[in-house]
Amino acid sequence: MIYLDKKILLALSLVATLVLPACRKDFLEVVPKGKLVATNTSDYDQLLNSMTLTLLYPHIESGDEAACVEPYFSGNAAAFQQNAFHWADDIWLASDQQTEWTLLMRWVYQCNKIINEVANSAGGSETQKKSILAEALVSRAWCYFMMINYYGQPYNAATAATDAGVPKILTADVTETKFSRATVKEIYDLIVSDLTLAIPDLPVTLTNRTRSTRAAAEAMLGKTYVFMGQFDKALPQLNAAITHISNSSIPVGLYDFQKELAPGGSFTPVNPYTGPARGNLNIDQEVLFLKRILNLDTYYGSFIVLTPATVALYTTGDYRRQFLTGNPLGEFTKPYPNGMMAVWGSGGATNVGVSVPDVYLLQAECKSRLNDLPGAVADLEAFRRMRMPVAEASIPANIAGDQVALTKFVLDERIREFPLQGYRWFDMRRLSVDPVYKSTVNYTHTLYDMSGAVVKTFTLRSQRLTFRIPLYIAQQNPDLPQIP
User: What are the residue boundaries of the SusD-like N-terminal domain, all occurrences included (predicted)?
Assistant: First the structure.
């Protein structure tokens, strides 16, 4: 049996922070002197290339598809991971100064610098400058989508104009030290505006997964509308994204899992210790816009697993089951109890930018919610045929003809597709304020031991669907009130 020292796990998960500067009071500061020197259009283009990696992932442990197992949980989980699973009021300790808040807001600073300055840069054509500006708008929109879904209250049309969001920062001024929360509506309006402005000037052809295209922005705008509950506005954007996905000079689209898991396929050979060979997101054709997090602990830490109820969502022949393992890392004789399974084969990384499967599943959800049941069924069955034998891909007739049942089926498909990747936490937030589907959110986490006995349970309070601002930020910025 293998246990990984907590210090080793933390070092692995935070290895790339070595390239980041030490944090000071101003969470926008990105270089020691607080200035980025950019003059030429090419300089601003290079700034976009620096925004590809994010490291922190408390939303993975927060999802309701997750359970944890002792002794791995106490032995391997870092403090922030334990707090996230507990749904504790504060995930980060006061001494933690490298958080998702810090990195995302630094990226906002860089985006603002590009947005405000690239038009006056030297050496580039107007077309190039417009394209770089558009990409910066997309990256800022993505940063704010992540920020509002960490630290803002879930979008509720009736209260969004007064609900607490996050600071709305539109300049690259590192001398600014006074920040306040914008409302949830203001932040979502900014995301919609940025993406809408960007789309006409974005490249149509995808040549680099770390750079945004028209399809990526359309997908992001569609997803934003889904999170606002505006499915009629979301569907045309998602349809357009799927149309434009084919405009690519590199492979982009859904994998056929049966083919790729067969001998000679892209996911082979299967390593007996780490699972199928699908770890390089830079060449993964299901990545449309790459924003990477290190997700080592879904397997290498051995402490976080899928609940028995989540494992039961998969049919026997579902090829995605091959990305699940019943054994802790290096343990072949004592599997997890109660049929629980860990996620492996991902290489310790997850894309939280724009994922092709996410676009297709959001499209099916929108059609179902808009009562286009035949369209939703057709889309969903086509998707499932890429994930399982044809005989298992069909939607049962009693579900296919019932709008509520079909929408719930799509939501379950999202869990099957994105186990322990963080997608579920964001879905939980939006569903928690949905009058029809709020019952699909589970508010209990369970910690087991290896015999299957319950060690402890934790209950999610509705307030903790919103993360509290990291303590070191809150202590230094009194004008940013915490959500209780």
Answer: 26-225
